[in-house]
DNA sequence: CTGATTTGACCCCG
DNA sequence: CGGGGTCAAATCAG
């Protein structure tokens, strides 16, 4: 499988992030008349996360280029982070980021990269997205069909206790709340429930599943009967802010320590939802029509034309409103959804990727294309004339 | 200081 | 009754 050829030594993402952050702040502040509007830190953080994930993926490429499942998961995380940023921007009323509008704005500016330049480009992008969705699903279908053979089992390291550092609590330091029993610890409220398999990092910390684009806060860990690895419980970080009830459980597989079973429960009511953001008016209708003349930089992007996704544009035919409320569940992964984790497992086929992920691809395109021997051309990223069709 | 993690206790439910 | 999910104090980390 041919993948993006990693740049020699990898791009300098750290400086890139810094530069990106500055430019975004300037641009957004300009739009709002000088001051950075409240909440934009979150947006910048999301964009930064996307870049960080992309950087990690670049670093992992040498080791993971033959692992489509891993690549798919990582790509999805990147795409999601971008979309999260866009959603936040929309909620913040940044009008210039009306990404649903297929017409280019005249102003340009830093946020322009989140927007298609024309209906043509949008259509072409949507086609690319459809293909992306198909492509993303493939490896996961493979996973569903044939479980990976058991690898050499490593030591039963803790699944999630990797980032908090060692912490030993002194004995009897904690007062036992025997007096007042807590009330109403409900459990049966999980509406949605989806389970998927996610490959672990191939480089770096393999103890953690790849980032899925959301921010989670761990609230518990439990040794599960019959499992060698503990199960970790996470809830959405924005629970307090938005009352987001999304949760997920992460369980490392016994027979494949490099694979995680992630169960998503509840839906994201926060801004970091997977709900599709971009519904190009021309997307569905013209996806096939523009297949051969796609103005997307298939040749210019890191994706070689020959390696381009096989066309299967009906993937996203189902209304995006059917999007499952399960946070972190990409439609593309649903072929992998494993039954058996409760009665509420849904296996309906929906879509999100095509009409959701275009900006990320656009940005990724720019990013992966903008490397140089000494640095990355950020001007290429932020230029309003970038890939202009004028 | 704030937010995240750890971890044993608590509690629901099969 | 016991497994699994959640709570929350203690602690860590930036």
From TrEMBL:
Subcellular location: Nucleus
Any one of the GO BP annotations: regulation of DNA-templated transcription
Record's keyword terms, sorted: DNA-binding, Nucleus, Transcription, Transcription regulation
Superkingdom classification of source: Eukaryota
UniProt GO MF annotations: DNA-binding transcription factor activity; transcription cis-regulatory region binding
Cellular component GO terms held in the UniProt record: nucleus
Tagged with keyword Transcription regulation: yes
Region feature Disordered, mapped onto this chain: 153-192
Residue ranges annotated for the WRKY domain, each copy included: 211-269
Regions of compositional bias (Polar residues) in chain numbering: 172-181
Primary location recorded for the protein, binned into one broad class: nucleus
Keyword flag Transcription regulation: yes
InterPro entries noted in UniProt: WRKY_dom, WRKY_dom_sf, WRKY_plant
Protein name as catalogued: WRKY domain-containing protein
Species lineage: Eukaryota, Viridiplantae, Streptophyta, Embryophyta, Tracheophyta
